[in-house]
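Quick one - inputs below.
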Amino acid sequence: MERKKRGPGRPRDAELAARRREEILAEATGVFAAAGYRQADVQVVADRLGVGKGTVYRYFESKEALFFGAVDAGIRALVERVDAATARVDDPVEHLKKAVHAYLGFFDENPDLVELLIIERAEFRDREQATYFVYKDRNYDRRVSFIRQGIERGVIRDVPPDRVMNVVGDCLYGTIFTNHFSKRKIPFQRQAEDVIDLLMNGVFTAGSAK
Amino acid sequence: MERKKRGPGRPRDAELAARRREEILAEATGVFAAAGYRQADVQVVADRLGVGKGTVYRYFESKEALFFGAVDAGIRALVERVDAATARVDDPVEHLKKAVHAYLGFFDENPDLVELLIIERAEFRDREQATYFVYKDRNYDRRVSFIRQGIERGVIRDVPPDRVMNVVGDCLYGTIFTNHFSKRKIPFQRQAEDVIDLLMNGVFTAGSAK
Amino acid sequence: MERKKRGPGRPRDAELAARRREEILAEATGVFAAAGYRQADVQVVADRLGVGKGTVYRYFESKEALFFGAVDAGIRALVERVDAATARVDDPVEHLKKAVHAYLGFFDENPDLVELLIIERAEFRDREQATYFVYKDRNYDRRVSFIRQGIERGVIRDVPPDRVMNVVGDCLYGTIFTNHFSKRKIPFQRQAEDVIDLLMNGVFTAGSAK
Amino acid sequence: MERKKRGPGRPRDAELAARRREEILAEATGVFAAAGYRQADVQVVADRLGVGKGTVYRYFESKEALFFGAVDAGIRALVERVDAATARVDDPVEHLKKAVHAYLGFFDENPDLVELLIIERAEFRDREQATYFVYKDRNYDRRVSFIRQGIERGVIRDVPPDRVMNVVGDCLYGTIFTNHFSKRKIPFQRQAEDVIDLLMNGVFTAGSAK
DNA sequence: GATGAATGAGGATTCATTCAT
DNA sequence: CATGAATGAATCCTCATTCAT
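Output:
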């Protein structure tokens, strides 16, 4: 995260500004996750980057904007990761497995994001929708159609797809929190399998899975 | 929540002090849930009760103590409710159903507690264990033995009981958060059934349940 | 302005709070007049009073409220002074003389108020009406009727009373500013006479005055 | 206020630099008048001109210098206007009339300057003399001699000329402030006549004027 | 000459906690 | 016991100014 000394003057291009933005966001994520929103001091973010506080404020209008920037970047990365993992997987069963692995794996590697999600809710309880839920519904239709396919092929029990989505989603959502908060020390890989196993055998008709 | 005027003299007994403590806790729960930890103003709690701020500090050493008192009271009530609902239910399947209903029903009626759990984590991330998880494990052994019984009777698949506990727990935990945060408007009763249905058919051997 | 040491606890009555308010206002007037609005540091007001900054904020919601409190108190005192000086003076000529003397005398003794008026306009240019002008019109009707009487008695030229009011008012308003700003060192007493003399001989019909 | 694109190379001469200086001053006047000294952002001045902030600083050493430049330019223009209006007017009565009209007319057209004068005093209260008063005395001697002539000719009452100057000056000074601050909506033309009328009939011996 | 990114000092405000009455 | 006045630590944000490009 070493910042190259660079004096004032017009930046060569917007690309540098974007890089700087990323750096700030990365550092801010760590600071917010470690300290919470109120406790977090913008000065600390600046210090860690070796820049002045004013610089941070050049890139983000306010502490709040900085925080939401961090959450947003995190959720985007999550969505990308899950999408990438499931992009070319047409088999419903395999699709679900990949998605669960990608999801849990992402949070395993980015525990800070769990904190950020919690903080967002704790500090900004009046927001219409938490960032997480905004993105959550992005691929809703696509996933529902997968479930429908599964039902048609007879591998998934004939249950309203949205209910399935909800229960699976809640289960994963709860898992990342529990993992993180209870300091439960289970290799996420095995945990993913537990979750998949138990969900599968409720989602799929007897005999079709496992 | 009008406070009765109390004449001079020593309170009849400690019982009155306990009642006062309860009142403070109840008000504090609402204030913390509505405002968050930092935003919450002890003065507001005092005002709502019609007492002086100093009085609140007589019953709780600090704002932090007040907050944890509120969380603790909430979790205790939850545990009581679930325990009461499952006390005399020996059938493993019925036991799980009752527990899930009680759990989701409790949070449906006490949404403030969800906020408190979030706040606890957001503000006191360095705590060894969140209050929730401390209580969560209270009946761990009893429930494990229930699962074992189910396995022996052949109604529950032969899966390590702790894994079952974890997945079920995570699923419920995630559900209360999602319900609350996404403002999902589903009658908790039906939701409980969805959860039970999907969990069951993964938890129980094919054909044994439903 | 020595503050008596007084510990916490309910004040004996509201009277003490009022006194404290006055003290703060008096000190604030001096600080604002000397430093300007932005430059003025609420901490300085507190320091001079020997109290904590929080105490000042107990009495005034914000720096802005403190400032307007000071302006308001000043204008009130001015109005009182002028009203007291003209209360029982029914002769139009004498009335005007007394008013001018009281007005200029007040600002001579309270130069800080001139600064406050300037500051109010400089910092709060978007306000509907400056405090000064709000109070200015309080006795408008009474004064207009005096002028009318003078016209009827033939001692005042037949000119629309409001125009007379405006010119006289402007002249006085300009005088206090000029006095204060140009550091013009003229005994206000003599100056009042100059102003009266020149205004009179324009206000009164030829031969009636002087 | 669109800035023309300028190719590379040295400016044809200092004349261009002077023009640029004027543009900056004009924009700065508006910004300071609208926002006040502290609130005014040099960046805004630069933005409105479509130049970089650094450029403004090339022409003016500091924000303060920029502000005083604006005030100075304003006062210069005022003086020029009044001088031009009275240049060839030898009759004392007419001279005064022209001066008053020019003065009030100027501020009517340049209300920003009133704000600037106020701001100067509010922010730089420690200055020896406000810009206004520095220029005010420029033509002091010339005007005094006019008054003396009037006295000799018997059209002006035998009153110390400097007192007349002061009262007239204060009256005008107060008028522009009052006009501006109280949002008094009177056509300045008619107001000028009111002022002249009332001043005249105090300044001139009975029957000599009007 | 221009530019605009970087800097950091400066100050208002909040609110938990104390303790004299 | 109850009260609420007093306190001051803690921190966000603005914007004048600099100077490398």
